[in-house]
Amino acid sequence: MRNRKGSTPQKGRLDEEPKRPLPSRKEDSWSNEQDFDLTMMLALSAFRMFSGFFGVINDCDEVYNYWEPLHLFLYGEGFQTWEYSPIYAIRSYFYIGLHYIPAWFVSFRPKVEVFIFIRCILSLLCACGEYYAYRAICRNINARTGRFFYFFSVFSPGVFLASATFLPSSFCMSLSYYIIASFVSRRWTLGIFCVAFSALVGWPFSAVIGLPFVVHMLFVEDLKSEFVLASLGSGLGIGVVQFLTDTHYFGKPVVASLNIVLYNVLSGPGPSLYGEEPITFYIKNLFLNWNIAVFIILLGCPLTLWRFWASRRAGGLGAFYRRNSSVVLFAITAALWMLIFGSQAHKEERFLFPIYPFIALLAAVVYNCFFETIIGQLAVNQRTIITVMILSCFALLSTSRAFSVHRNYAAQSEIYEVLEKELGSGVEYNVNFRFGMEENGVNKDERINPGSNDVQICVGKEWHRFPSSFFVPNYDRNGRKVRMQFVKSEFTGLLPKPFKATMNLIDSTRHEPSDMNNMNKEETSRYVSLDSCDYFVDLDMPATELEPNLGEKPTEWKPIITRPYIDLSKPTKYFGLLRAFYVPHFSDKANSMTTYTVYKKISE
């Protein structure tokens, strides 16, 4: 696009510092990076904070592998999975400890508030990365691409969900924004540090995200010594601290990132024990979380070929490569990620989180190319209308998707919040390892050993939707211990079990629990009888032999809390689009709802 003086602004390249001055306020709003920067940052933070408050927890791995150990650190109890057994040790307590630090400062507040606070902290970490990447793209690629990147990233329902999620893959996604910003800004040391932190502390497979640094520093520019020094310094610095932390909590030398690679790739049974999906699983998820942005990226293939052909005819292939090398490397990285994880039998939505920033950037670059090549030839009013229509379509579909997820799947968190109020949190009884238990009025034998006066909250088939112990008070208003229990259902895999209840955190983390395995084999020691339960949380569905519908037993159980929940067993029209995206009136008619219910046992 030409400015008012008719000159063509230069585009920043990775092989030189950008010489293009910042755009003036007289330029159109899509290419002016100084307009409303504060407003954009505030809007971005608001979007992400909204996710922290209202985002849905849809992954039991997040609950049992991350929220529960954090609950152990804060309150002295929580559920333990086999991954945290010192025998296997494929999770890192260092990662948990990073979240424990801010949580500790607010741990005197009700547990649900601590939970939301941590989600908001994670959201703001992501928001800062998004804004940093946006600014870097504006200055080093061009301002219009930066604006498109900002828009796609902010409104993506995938980023909305992942930004507040307590998972290594979402942590890697947030760091991917910093990695992109560091690369296009030529801040090599910071970028390599973020890659190392992502791979060692977050998820070891995210090392693939560092491919652009490897290629550019080793093969494009002669930066081998800088690459080696930054890599060794970052790897050793982070790795040593993590190693010492995990060794302390597991009670033996542990390299958690190495253990997870060994289990998933080299010597372990691998994740296929937990289900397999075809490649269409990822295709559907990309469409749901990025809708038309996916088609915009696909448009990039013919556009790239056309621009390449035009540059070749003009004799400017060298300039074309230098100008687009970063985008090509980002595209190769995203494609390699899809190839690696698409070829694996076990697939989960969260496995794609780390490349979400790359998807936003690629969509922005392609649309900017489309704008310059085709739309830019039109009159100002026409190209503005076309751009507004396309971006509005993306925002509308994204909002529809995010609202549909919350409307259909938020019931489990809502009813546990209400249940917590029903029980009444005995704040003075909530134990934190910072304080002595006797100082809080808690008898250690009462806490460690189950008693007949305990309040038992049970789940059966809905164990995987339990939102974490942060939604269950340690003690009720009468000082009775509240315990979460499992009742046998049709599920035949391995359920978590409580960490060993001790007076010392280290004794809990170093204890080797019995009845654990890494083969997802069922352990019947996890179950209690339904008759021993005081409350039962369930999704109301047709009864089976192992999964009774307590609504059909009004003399024994009474519903005290109910919320609507999508009935996935019922067919839906239009290939499920009205379930995936909320359309007022039409989605209400096309989808069947059931109820998520808390039942209370009727005293005899």
Walkthrough of the structure:
The chain is α/β, with parallel strands linked by helices and 604 residues long. The protein has helices at 37-54, 60-75, 93-105, 111-140, 143-155, 157-163, 168-184, 188-202, 211-220, 224-250, 256-266, 280-290, 292-313, 317-342, 356-373, 380-409, 411-423, 444-448, 505-510, 577-580, 586-590; strands spanning 79-80, 455-459, 482-486, 497-498, 535-539, 557-566, 593-601. Helix 2 (60-75) packs across helix 3, helix 6 crosses helix 16 (380-409) and helix 14 packs antiparallel against helix 15 (356-373). The longest helix is centred in the first third of the chain and has 30 residues, at 111-140. The protein is globular and about 90 Å long.
User: What structural category characterises the helix and strand content?
Assistant: alpha/beta
Q: Round the Cα radius of gyration to an integer and report it.
A: 26 Å
Q: Summarize the amount of helix as a percent range.
A: 40-55%
- The helix count comes to 21
Distance between the termini: 79 Å
Strand order of the largest sheet: 3-2-5-7-6
Oligomer: single chain
Low-confidence runs (pLDDT<50, min 5 residues)? Answer: 1-30, 427-446
Number of strands: 7
Organism: Caenorhabditis briggsae
Subcellular location: Endoplasmic reticulum membrane
Biased composition (Basic and acidic residues): 12-29
Pathway: Protein modification; protein glycosylation
